[in-house]
Write a structure and sequence with these properties.
Shape: elongated
CATH topology of the largest domain: Beta-lactamase
Structural class: alpha+beta
CATH class of the largest domain: Alpha Beta
Number of helices: 22
Largest sheet: 6 strands, mixed
CATH superfamily of the largest domain: DD-peptidase/beta-lactamase superfamily
Mean pLDDT: 89
Length: 618
C-alpha cells in the first residue's frame, strides 16, 4: 500500500500543538505559584495585617544646644481596599470634614498611584488634627477596612531660619523611583537641611504584624511580636547656627529684600543665614502645607527663593579686596604702587567715575576709600601691559579668573544645602565670542575690576571671601550642620582649602579693610573694644536704585565672625550694609548693642527699603 505523506506530516503538527499547550500550562503554573504574589498576598492579607512603624525623625539643635526642630504625633487615615465594606460615606466625610467630591478624588488618586494594591494598606488622608482624630476614632468601628496610622509631624520652635531648615513633604513618583526606601504616603525632606540630610534624619522604618481571625478582626500580634521589626530613630543634628543671632539678623532685614550670611572663619560654620523676605517655617506643616505653599509661590517678593544661596548679584566694591590680592600675587603692584584718580579712571575716551579723595593712592588707602580708579588701572596693567608675561590679553584674563575661582567664585562652594547658585565669572572665550577674538582689551571689560559688568556672586561667596581674608589665606567649605549624631562629619567640611594667593598678601588687604573702618567708607562699623575690618559695596542696578553691600570680620587678630550683608535697592553700602553688618558683629561678640549705638539699631529695625524694589505686592 502506498504511504500517505500528508498524514505523516499531520501527526507532527498535532504533536507540536500538544507540546505547545503543555508548555503554556507549565508556564502559567510557574507564574501563579512562583512569580505571582497575588494569591500569596491574598492569603496573607486574610491572616495578617502588616503595619509600617514609622521612626521618630531626628531632632535639630543650634550650636548652643537650643532645640530648634522637634516632632509631634500626627495621624494618617489608612485603608485596605479589599477589606472595605459598604458604609455610610456621608458620615465618614463629616467626621473628616471633607466633601463627597474630595472623597471620590482621593479614592481615584489612590488607584492611580505607584504601588497601589487592594491587599496592602493605602494612605487615604494624611496628618489629621487632634480634633479630627478624636472625632473619627469614635466612629471608626463603623467603617471596616479603615484604620489609623501614627506618624510624625515636624514642629519648628522658632519663627526663624525657614530657608535653612526646610520642611518635609509627601513623596512623589520620582522620589519612589529614585530611592527604594520610599513607599506611597512616606515623607521626605523638601528644601534646606531637611532635604540635604534626609537620609540621616529619616531613620529606618519598622514593621508590626498583626494576626486576624476568620472575620478579619485583629486578635493580637503574630508570634507575640517576635516577627515584628522595630523602627530605628533618625539621627539628631547639631546645627552651626546661633538661633538667637539668626533671629536678630532676620529682624534687621524686615521690610528689606536681600540676604545676610555670617560665618565662623576658623571652622567654616555658618552662624546665621538670612534670606529676606522670609516666612514662618510652621506654615509648611500639616494639612495646610499645600495651601500655604501655593500662597508662598504666588508671593511677588518670592520668600521661597533663598537669596543667600541662589541670588547672583554684582558684588560691587566687596570684590576689590580679591582684586588687590590678585594684583599683588601677579606682581602687577606692590604695597607702594600708587595710581592716580582724577575723579575716576580715565583712559582714552573711557571714564569710570569715583568719589572725592586724595590722589595718587596705594593699595591700602585705595581699599580704605574704595577707589575705583586704582583697581581699574591695576586690571588694565595686568591685561594690556604684560603681554611678555602672559602672551596675550586672553591668557592674562584666564590667569585672573583662575585666581578668583580658587577663592570660591564662579562655581558652587559646596555648602551642605540644596540649590546653591554658582554665580558667574566670564572667561576669555566668552569675551572673544562677544567682541571677536583679539578685538577686546582691558578697557572693553574694565567694569569687572570693580565687581560690576558680567561678574555675579552669591552672598555666601562674598562671605566666604571675607572669611578667607580673616584667616589670612584659607577657608573651610561653609556648612550649616556642625555635628551628626554618631557620625563623623564629611571631610569637605573639616579640611582647609588654600587659594592660589600667597598668604603674605592677606595681611596687606586686611590692614586696608581695617583702615576702611577706622577712617574710610565703613566708619559706622567702628565698634568700641572690637577691631572690625570691612569693605563697603555699592552695586549699580540698571533696574532701579543701587544695591547696598558690606563684608567685614572681627576681631582683627582673632577673627570669630565674618559677615556679608546685601540689601537690594538700598543705595550706598554705608547706608544699610555697614550698619546691619556691624550690629550683627556686635551682637554676636558682645551679646548686646552698646547704648550709644541703639539709635542705629532702631533705624535698621524700622527702616523700609522694599518700597524701592519696584515690586507691587497688590
Amino acid at each position: 500500500m502506498r504511504k500517505d505523506y500528508r498524514l505523516e506530516k499531520r501527526k507532527y503538527v498535532i504533536g507540536g500543538f500538544i507540546l505547545l499547550i503543555c508548555f503554556i500550562y507549565i508556564g502559567r503554573l510557574y507564574s501563579l505559584q512562583i512569580d505571582d504574589d497575588k494569591y500569596k498576598n491574598y492569603a496573607d492579607s486574610n491572616a495578617f495585617l502588616k503595619k509600617t512603624v514609622y521612626p521618630s525623625r531626628g531632632l535639630m539643635y543650634d550650636r548652643n544646644g537650643e532645640l530648634v526642630v522637634y516632632n509631634q504625633p500626627a495621624y494618617d487615615v489608612m485603608m485596605i481596599p479589599r477589606d472595605v465594606q459598604p458604609f455610610d460615606t456621608i458620615s465618614f466625610c463629616n467626621a473628616l470634614k471633607i466633601t463627597r467630591e474630595q472623597f471620590d478624588k482621593r479614592i481615584a488618586d489612590m488607584k492611580k498611584s505607584v504601588g497601589y494594591s487592594t491587599y496592602t494598606p493605602q494612605t487615604f488622608l494624611t496628618q489629621l488634627s487632634a480634633e479630627d482624630y478624636g472625632r473619627l476614632m469614635e466612629k471608626l468601628y463603623l467603617f471596616p477596612g479603615f484604620f489609623i496610622q501614627k506618624r510624625i509631624l515636624r514642629q519648628y520652635k522658632h519663627v526663624a531660619a525657614a530657608n535653612v531648615l526646610g520642611n518635609i513633604r509627601e513623596v512623589n513618583r520620582q522620589d519612589i523611583k529614585r530611592d527604594p526606601y520610599f513607599e506611597r504616603g512616606d515623607y521626605c525632606g523638601d528644601l534646606g537641611v531637611e532635604k540635604s540630610y534626609d537620609t540621616y534624619l529619616r531613620g529606618v522604618k519598622g514593621k508590626e504584624i498583626l494576626i486576624r481571625d476568620v472575620h478579619g478582626r485583629i486578635q493580637g500580634r503574630y508570634l507575640d511580636g517576635q516577627a515584628d521589626v522595630p523602627s530605628v530613630a533618625g539621627r539628631n543634628l547639631t546645627l552651626s547656627l546661633d538661633i538667637n543671632l539668626q533671629q536678630y539678623a532676620e529682624s534687621l532685614m524686615v521690610n528689606k529684600i536681600g540676604a545676610v550670611v555670617a560665618i565662623e572663619p576658623k571652622t567654616g560654620e555658618i552662624l546665621a543665614m538670612v534670606s529676606s523676605p522670609t516666612y514662618d517655617p510652621n506654615m509648611l506643616v500639616g494639612r495646610k502645607r499645600g495651601d500655604s505653599y501655593k500662597k508662598l509661590t504666588k508671593d511677588k517678593y518670592k520668600p521661597l527663593f533663598d537669596r543667600a544661596l541662589q541670588a547672583a548679584y554684582p558684588p560691587g566694591s566687596t570684590f576689590k579686596p580679591g582684586q588687590g590680592l590678585i594684583l599683588l600675587q601677579e606682581g602687577i603692584i606692590n604695597t607702594n604702587t600708587a595710581y592716580s584718580c582724577y575723579g575716576g579712571y580715565i583712559s582714552g575716551g573711557l571714564r569710570v567715575g569715583c568719589h572725592g579723595h586724595s590722589s595718587p593712592l596705594a593699595l591700602k588707602p585705595a581699599l580704605q576709600t574704595s577707589c575705583n580708579a586704582f583697581f581699574c588701572w591695576g586690571l588694565k596693567n595686568m591685561l594690556d601691559n604684560r603681554k611678555a608675561k602672559y602672551g596675550s590679553v586672553a591668557n592674562a584674563f584666564e590667569t585672573w579668573k583662575l585666581h578668583l575661582v580658587s577663592m570660591g567664585f564662579g562655581y558652587r562652594l559646596g555648602v551642605d544645602l540644596p540649590s546653591e547658585n554658582r554665580g558667574f565669572l566670564p572667561n576669555a572665550q566668552f569675551y572673544s565670542k562677544t567682541y571677536g577674538e583679539g578685538h577686546w582689551s582691558a578697557n572693553t571689560i574694565i567694569s569687572v575690576a570693580i565687581g560690576q559688568g558680567e561678574v555675579l556672586a552669591t552672598p555666601l561667596q562674598i562671605a566666604n571671601l571675607c572669611a578667607t581674608i580673616a584667616n589670612r589665606g584659607w577657608f573651610i567649605t561653609p556648612h550649616v550642620v556642625k555635628e551628626i549624631q554618631d557620625t563623623v562629619m564629611p571631610s569637605e567640611y573639616t579640611e582647609r582649602k588654600y587659594p592660589t594667593i600667597d598668604t603674605r598678601h592677606y595681611d596687606v588687604v586686611a590692614e586696608g579693610m581695617r583702615m576702611a573702618v577706622t577712617g574710610g567708607t565703613c566708619r559706622l562699623a567702628n565698634l568700641p573694644n572690637i577691631e572690625v575690618c570691612g569693605k563697603t559695596g555699592t552695586a549699580q542696578n540698571p533696574h532701579g536704585k543701587d544695591h547696598s553691600a558690606f563684608m567685614g570680620f572681627a576681631p582683627y587678630d582673632d577673627p570669630q565672625i565674618a559677615v556679608c550683608v546685601y540689601v537690594e535697592n538700598a543705595g550706598f553700602g554705608a547706608t544699610y550694609g555697614v550698619p546691619i553688618g556691624s550690629l550683627i558683629i556686635e551682637k554676636y561678640l558682645n551679646g548686646q548693642i552698646a547704648p550709644e549705638r541703639k539709635y542705629i539699631e532702631e533705624r535698621m529695625l524700622h527702616s523700609n527699603t522694599i518700597i524701592y524694589s519696584g515690586v507691587r505686592k497688590h
